[in-house]
Amino acid sequence: MSNQCEEKVPGEGRWGFVHMHRCSNAAKAERDGKSYCNTHDPVRVKERREKKYQERQDNVNLVLARREQERQEFITRVIEMGQLEHDVQKTATRLVDEILSTGRSRARSPLW
Ligand SMILES: [Zn+2]
Question: For ligand 1, a single-atom ion, which residues have Cβ within 5 Å?
Answer without folding.
Answer: 5, 7, 23, 25, 37, 39-40
